[in-house]
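User: Hi! Is it possible to get a structure for several chains at once, not just one? Here's what I have:
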Amino acid sequence: MSEAIQAPVVRRFIIVALVAPAFLTVAAFALQFSWRHDLPDPIATHWGPSGAADGFGGLATILIVAAVLGLGLPALIAATTLPLLVRGARGANFRFMASIAVGVSALFAVLNTWTVDMQRGLTDAHNAPSVFPALVAGFGAAAVAGVAGWLFQPHQDAVVPGLSHPVPLGLAKDERAVWMRTATMARPFRILLFVILASLGVASSGLWIGGQTVAAWIYLGTMALVALAMAATTAFHVRVDHTGLSAISALGFPRFGVAIADVADAGVAQVNGFAEFGGWGIRLRPGALGIILRNGESLQVTRRNGKCLVITVDDGETAAALLMALAKRAGAVPPVAP
Amino acid sequence: MLIRIDASSDVSIFEQIAAAIRTDMAAGRVRPDDKLPSAREVAASLGVNLHTVLRAYQVLRDEGLVDMRRGRGAVVTSAAGDLTELVGDIRKLGARAAALGMTPDALASLVRDSLKATS
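Assistant: Yes, the chains can be modeled jointly so their relative placement is included. Here is the combined structure:
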């Protein structure tokens, strides 16, 4: 792929994910700052679920929060995604991440500016009107900015940089082979999930003691769901044998796989969950399903229809080498490309 | 963990399975505290008898490389880590032999003979 075709991808990503959010944030900041003499002191900075103001503070609070969220979140997205794009990675997911960045920025710019604007001329911020119109405008602006950001960027065919193809294992005619490995979630995620689970447990018993049985049941139900999700996605048994590739959750469900006759290609590449799949766990993105339990080495198997299964597992090189050898023997991978 | 078996080989299947797991331990691909896959799963994937796989696991247990516990399956012991270190020593020995102009086969037979002499 030539530089001339690829350059707009990176340039337009930067415009959508960084330049536009910076412009929106600075414009919102300037507007709100210019109204500083027309505002009550303190101003309303937080609204409760009923839509009425319930938190108050100085204009500085709103400005700082607006800058941190409106520019900080897009910067965080760009910081994880842009290095991969520069290295040559391509995919609809990158286009999507930039759209999210500008959408988030538009949400906070419009929401904050609107809530400050509606307090101009008030003497007491307690009389501030409902926040709902501002919320609607904010999410509306986010949707418009996100869609515009998506359309502004060119289409990208998926490219995985550094996808290496190990030499297929030399299997003797009658030789049988199996490769097995358990892929587990990175420790920080396991700890995080455990902490969430424990806090839900503490919260539900607290509510129970406090006599709020309904709320306690809701927390308990949430806890059960989190526990189930944990059990289903923290460990996968990955296996390559004459039937193909299979990845089965330690719970027994869900299970994924590629039949040997459906294997078109197998390789190994580094993967970054957040930048390439928008997070960790069982992730779907255009053209690929990911069992992304950590960042780093991953086994990438392409089906004959072009769709890819990505699994973060150690020693993926051996798995790919064996899978290709078995696929060749099964006649799934012809010596010449179809 | 990669297990390869060749039915046309003179070496019996259970020994081939045990050797494959031992090689993975030596290479550090299987580490202490790792759980070996269930014998049933290995047997199904390789198309061999369950008892053949269990016999391979028993060989490894007799060598102290795995611990077999009811309900927990076969767990790799710390001895597997020592095996990884041993491979480092073997590589050093191989490098010295190569410097002396010895082929790996000549070294292997020398090692075998000298071990027979001491035992």
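The mean pLDDT of chain B is 88. The two ends of chain B are 33 Å apart (CA to CA).

User: Great, thank you!
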